[in-house]
Amino acid sequence: MHSITGIGVAKGIAIGETFLLQRGRIDVSISHIPQDQVFQEIERYRLAVESARAQLKTIKSKIPSDTRSDILAFIDTHLLMLDDAAFVAAPIELIAQNSYTAESALQVQRNALVKVFDEMEDPYLRTRKDDVDHVVNQIHKGLLNQAEDTQGNALEGKVILAQDLSPADTILMKHQGIAAFITEYGGPMSHTAILARSLGIPAIVGLHSATQLLGHGRQVIVDGGAGLVISDVDEQTLILYRQRIVDNLEQAKQLSKLIGKPAITRDGMQLSLMANIELPEDIATTRALQADGVGLYRTEFLYMNRDTPPDEDEHYEAYRSVVEGLNGIPVTIRTLDLGADKQVDGCLGNTPVCNPALGLRAIRLCIKEPRLFLPQLRAILRASAHGPVRIMVPMLSTLSEVAALKQHLEAAKLSLSQDGTPFDTNIQVGGMIDVPAAALSADRFANALDFLSIGTNDLIQYTLAIDRVDDEVNYLFDPLHPAILRLIKMVIDAGRHYNKPVSMCGEMAGDPSYIPLLLGMGLQEYSMQPGALLDAKRLLCELDAGKLSERTDRLFQHLHEADISERIAQICQEY
Ligand code: PEP
Ligand code: MG
Q1: 354 is catalytic
Q2: Is ligand 1 within 6 A of the CB of residue 508?
Q3: Which atom of ligand 1 is nearest to the CA of 458?
Q4: Which of 66, 98, 116, 337 has the smallest C-beta neighbourhood within 10 Å, fewest atoms?
Q5: How confident is the model at residue 501 (pLDDT cuts 50, 70, 90)?
Q6: Which ligand is nearest to the CA of 197?
């Protein structure tokens, strides 16, 4: 029996066979197919080129007529390249001669072409290698889609092994019934990890060399909570883990008795427990658990697994079904938080930048691209006619962004009023506090907005200067760092001072290890992935808010002391 550990990011036990997903994060590794499959592989490649061509034509047909002609020319160039022997005959030849997989043949040919461009004297021609990569990516996507289609049920019950998975991959594979996943890269606050928790997929990330250590087709046990993978399992261990699966189910049954009961502390403080949602399936779960509201509806999913951005009606239909599906509980719709860890292919023509997390993302992108922002604002407003809706804006760092947001919102309201379209004229507008600058000036944001919500995933990333998706610096990710606690306290205090509700929607809010401290700091609204709601309720109902508040106040007087982490841990662990 062998066991290896990574970072456990989504709890749960899975027992199943590994399925090695051959998608390189950097390069597709070169692999071969048996000789007798060459013909099918060539067909697969041809189909992928066809699909790439169809995709480009669709994109071209959707480009508005007033678009700059060079953009159209760019697509035409790529369409021409897709007819060129370099992208059709040459990779096919490589498959035929070397029994390469279609992906490998494409990669080998791409490297050869890029080398030719790299050696060119002319700087303009040298940059044309970007075109090669665009076309290669387009064909590669065609191959991936086929893999997903043809794999069909092949992933059902499997433990996926991959170098890395995007949020979009994770959603697709959940629908294909995977049992768990293990990746070599990634951190616990990556969007992929958050999705795994929310979708209830046991998951381990940052397990370096997992693909080599485990390989394809091995029976393993995955303990997502402990970050543990056991292979070459003996019978006794198997029995033990099967029993743990049964115990977990029993525990969930016990917890379900809390559904419908209010979250009130022992000393009578009424709290609000809300859900973070994202996918259509979250509606049913949130409803079944009787959450008090939705504190964060991540809307980026609308942009995933597609090549063109959704239009206003698509936004509207998605929001309306959430609002109607949730039967009158308030829904906080977050405006687009695209960029950095929430990158989506194809829709926005993203150009690579050095520091995407610090770049043009979230509200910054929305303000710069009203064509992206206005349809969403109008759609949120239209949805507000069907039930209680609030708007929440991510990544605010300056009040000028609030002013710009309000301007756009007014424009959206005006255009709807002119059309006679109904919406909530008093819709509440709040801000996420996920940038240290916003936390440090939380009073200004509390004054300017209707509510605040603390996004600890990014707040911790930016305050401690650690990339949330980089497992190499994951050891520094510490929600209990005194700097973080001070910032959280400032936001809660600012809300109290201006009489504006403050919630927390970062992962910290749903983690029982931090809840006692947060309650002691005065936090009354918690928003978390639906699966964490009942555990949080059970804990909160056992706590005494008054006593915790006294202890936390004393703790804050000692935050400068060296042994403070032990004192903080004490408050958290005693419960
Ligand atoms: C956060 O940053 O804390 C948050 C809730 O948003 P996301 O994880 O979507 O970035
Ligand atoms: Mg965030």
Answers
A1: no
A2: no
A3: 2
A4: 66
A5: very high
A6: 1
